[in-house]
Amino acid sequence: MNNFFLLGRTVCTALLVFTLLLSCKKSTTPMDDDALEIVIEGIYYADNAPIQITVKNGMISEIERPAELGQGNNYLVAPGLIDHQVNGYLSHSFVGGDLDAAGLKEVTEGFWKKGITTYLPTLTTQTDEVLLKSFENIAQLLEDDEHLAQSIPGFHLEGTFYFS
Fold this sequence. Notes:
There is one protein chain. The protein is elongated. The protein has two domains: 4-79, no CATH class; 81-163. Helix content is 29%, strand content 30%. By secondary structure, it is of the alpha/beta class. The strands form three sheets. It has a five-stranded mixed β-sheet. Strands 6-9-10 form a three-stranded parallel β-sheet, covered by helices on one side. The N and C termini lie far apart (38 Å).
């Protein structure tokens, strides 16, 4: 999956475009005439050359390298950031099984707005029962929402128990 992070002189505009790009749900159906299409132009971070990305129904459908950019399209286009250890965010914790679907959505969308497209929820040292409950809870939430699950490829398990 190709996720891109956009930075521009007008950060609010860049974050708005980035949020629109990531908030489009993945589509497995063929395109029709009423399909949602977003075209983003910017400078590719790896070579400082123009890039144009077309997104149809939430999936990158085309990447072109035009000779020039349109007026005012000075975004920096780069892969999304990855956070490999997240203990919690926006007052939500991943430990204990209390996280609900709305909380997981708030955390994930909060990261998207900051350019983090992938993260690993961290489960800290707890009893076996608490860890199992936490794993089961998050796994069920991800199973129920494939869109959010695309941003959470696994877990970060932390603690001293695995050294004994």
